[in-house]
Amino acid sequence: MVSNTPTRPVKESVDGKRVNQERARLLYEHASLGVAFTAVVCTCVVLLVGTSQQYGGQMWAWWCVMMAICLARLTAIRRWERSGNPNGVLGIRWFGAGILLQGLAWELMALVLFPVFPEEQRALVLMVMCALASGAITTLASSFWLAAGYATQMTLPPAILYMLADRTQNGSAVVFLTLSYLLMILHSARVNHEAVLRSIHAQESRQTLLAQMQQAYQDLAAAQVDLQNANQNLEQRIRERTSDLVKEVAERSRYAQELTRLASTDSLTGLSNRATFSSRLTACAKSAGAAGERLAVLFIDLDRFKEVNDVRGHDAGDLVLREVARRLASNLPEHAELARWGGDEFVVMAPRVKDETEAIEIANRLRSALWLPIPLAAEEVSIDGTVGIAMFPKHGRSDDDLIRAADVAMYSAKQEGRNRVRMFEQSLADDLASRHIVAQALRDAVSSGQLSLHFQPIVSTLTGRCETMEALLRWHHPDLGLIAPLDFIPMAERSGDIVGIGRWALVEACRAAAQWSGVPSPPAVAVNISAVQVLSGTLFDDVEFALRESKLPPSRLHLELTESLFAGDHQRISPAIEGLRRRGIRISIDDFGTGFSSLSYLQDLPVDTIKIDRTFINRMNRDSHAIVQAIVMVGRALSFEVIAEGVESENQWKELQALGVTQFQGYIVSRPIPGERVPNWLAASVQANRDLASLSERVRSGAPSGVHYREVVTARVEDDGYC
Ligand code: C2E
Ligand code: CA
Ligand code: CA
Fold first, then answer.
1. Cα distances (angstroms) measured from residue 203 to each of 23, 190, 211, 457
2. Among all ligands shown, which has an atom nearest to the Cα of 468?
3. What is the SS3 assignment for 349?
4. Is 303 helix (H, G, I), strand (E, B) or coil?
5. Burial of residue 685 (number of CB atoms within 10 Å: 0-12, 13-18, 19+)
6. Looking at ligand 1, which residue's alpha carbon is closest to its atom 3?
């Protein structure tokens, strides 16, 4: 650091105070010797001239005065010396006073004794005084006025006194000579004084110069120290900055590596991400093209992963994804690369694949690697995957085309019922394009009034009445015609549109049911609720709104939920379902037997009814009889009502009735009926019910069969052929 010490101002001229101090110093320097000399001279004068009886006493008295003066002067000189010479002017004045006093003493002696002295003694004293005067011009040279004053004092008055005492020519000559002498010594005094002043000035200038040089030297030294410090500081800062820079550079390169890694990998699984996979695929496709080789791109989508995530929570979902990534990675063929495409989708690129058969083998191997159950905190889940395959160069040459083709193949496999492998074909892409159009159109279906509800009766063999009507969605597209719910509901679930559609269905079903009050005991309405609706968290409010809007009593509303919703952590959704039940709404498990059935959780379910899936009913005469029997037994043991859906034949009816099933839904009773025809149908069914009593010869067990029901009702309501 550069010092901020201000540079002292350099003296330009000689300091007057110092000059006076020096002048005083010169006066005092040899003053003691001068005083001593004066004392000796006085003594000699007394001894030489003072022996006469006539004036001896006076001389000794004078001597005493002189000695006193000398003593006083010595004391003043000593004090002055001890005081350190602070004030030059004052010192000169005091010194002058001593000299004046001393001169006055000599004059006093001349005044008193010259008249009585004999001539020789008078001349001697005058000579001594003149000698002292001449000595003074040297010793008092630093003060001209002091030297001149003392010289004048010691010569002029004694010369005049001499002349007065000797009025002869001799006396005049002595005065003349003395005056001449005085003038000479005054001149000398002037010359001496100027020489002394010059020397003082020269000395002062030298000292000032010296001081200035010293000052300059000190300043230089200080500046050097500052410079050195500044240099050291600078070096230190450079060292620190250099080490900071080195650290910063290292840090940056670490960040850059980390960023590259993050940008190129998926943080959950540690696999490559989309961007990396795409660029790797581009490179591999290029080299495969050059080498004339085939390359397979596999698009893997996990089945039912959404349920794991929604029902068991995201932590469980993450765990499953990591485990799937690990299993896929460890079952890859040589040179193949794996990446996470997003969500539960993975992509694989397998170079040097001979043909499509080998690609399908790879896909099946990867699928089977997933089958082993994955343990979670409380239980385990089984995962499967659906795989779509595209081949380079047959199905595409660019990374985009290949991945899209594999995705299309995977999507088609999903539509065909999941858990399978599908090779891409152009027809699949065309199919998908039309599905895309459908999905777009579905978005406006509610607002443009293209949706409607049909109702399918559920009848009870105990009461012989239609107790419930299941509301089933229908979509009349102006160009595409009637679209079945199984073709658009999964689509709406994926896009989330099902929440709005389901809300509409709830309100419409309740409104319709509220209009059925024309018959004695109007049936309840059962509305299908998608898992997406339940998990969206708005179901309770939607139900409340529908009941308020339609004024339908809650006891006449049933909600059909799929079984998978209750699998796993059903504690999460049970409170919401319980809330609905407390309102008096009945809850049914739809498609029972197809989901994650486990006897252990059945008893805790907050439901009233289970509906045996129609696939079991359909296959009862082949392999499902035992399953249906088991479901009915479990349902009865747990006090659930059991509904058999999809009952088509008289045989099925009888078998189910023999197993103890009392509620039936299916074509044997009726196909779904358009909403506006339901009141007619209900009126006819009431009449039919009455008519049934007269058909007793056709009733075997005492309860009406589905065939009777349909026959009788059909006799009254024209079947319009909806299914
Ligand atoms: P689901 O809930 O199992 O409804 C019963 C389905 O079985 C209906 O098909 C019905 O027409 C059909 N069915 C009834 N009896 C018979 C029979 O004897 N034989 C045969 N082969 N089929 C019979 P649909 O109307 O095509 O509905 C299909 C599925 O669409 C429904 O299955 C339900 O899961 C879903 N769905 C319908 N409407 C809605 C709705 O409003 N919301 C939601 N979330 N899903 C709905
Ligand atoms: Ca249903
Ligand atoms: Ca069903």
1. 12, 20, 12, 135
2. 2
3. strand
4. strand
5. buried
6. 591
Q: What percent of the chain has pLDDT over 90?
A: 44
Burial of 230 (0-12, 13-18, 19+ CB in 10 A): middle
**532: Cβ below 6 Å to ligand 1?**
no
Ligand 1 pocket, residue 472 CB under 6 Å: yes
Predicted confidence band of residue 53 (pLDDT cuts 50, 70, 90)? low
Of 30, 24, 16, 18, residue with least CA distance to 143: 24
Atom of ligand 1 at shortest distance to CA of 485? 30
Residues ≥6 apart with Cβ < 8 Å to 79: none
Express each pLDDT in 353-391 by its tens digit: 999 999 999 999 999 999 889 988 878 888 899 999 999
* pLDDT (0 to 100) of residue 435: 77
User: Atom 40 (ligand 1): residue with closest C-alpha?
Assistant: 528
Ligand 3 centroid distance, CA of 491 (Å):
18
For 385, phi then psi, to 5°, come to -135, 155
Residue 319 has pLDDT above 80, yes or no: yes
Q: Which residues contact 10 (CB under 8 A, 6 or more apart)?
A: 212, 215, 216
C-beta 530 within 6 A of ligand 1: yes
Which residue owns the Cα nearest ligand 1 atom 43?
Answer: 528
Instruction: Go through the chain and tell me how many residues it has.
Output: 723
CA-nearest residue for atom 8, ligand 1, is: 472
Instruction: Give every CB contact of residue 596 below 8 A, 6+ residues apart in sequence.
Output: 563, 564, 566, 567, 568
Q: Out of 34-38, 256-260, 281-285, 505-509, which region has the weakest mean confidence (pLDDT)?
A: 256-260
pLDDT for residue 18: 81
11 pLDDT higher than 50: no
Predicted model pTM: 0.53
The single residue listed with the structure tokens 């007269």 is 694
- The values of phi and psi at residue 701, to 5°, are -95, 5
Task: Look at residue 527 and give its three-state secondary structure.
Answer: strand
Q: Is 695 helix (H, G, I), strand (E, B) or coil?
A: coil
Residue pointed to by tokens 């059991």: 642
| Buried-state track 647-660, b at ≥16 Cβ within 10 A, e below 16 | bebeebbebbbebe
pLDDT digits (tens, 9 = 90+) for 173-197: 888 888 899 999 899 989 988 998 8
Strands 295-303, 421-423: pairing is unpaired
Could you tell which of 614, 665, 668, 722 is best to mutate to test the pocket of ligand 1, judged by most ligand atoms within 8 Å of the CB?
A: 614
Q: 715, 664, 717, 667: which is closest to 692 by C-alpha? A: 715
If you ran DSSP here, which 8-state letter would residue 565 be given? G
- For residue 530, pLDDT over 60 is answered with yes
Nearest listed ligand to the Cα of residue 611:
3
pLDDT band at 117 (very low <50, low <70, confident <90, very high): confident
If one counts every other C-beta atom within 10 angstroms of the C-beta of residue 193, the result is: 21
What integer pLDDT is reported at residue 7 of this predicted model? 42
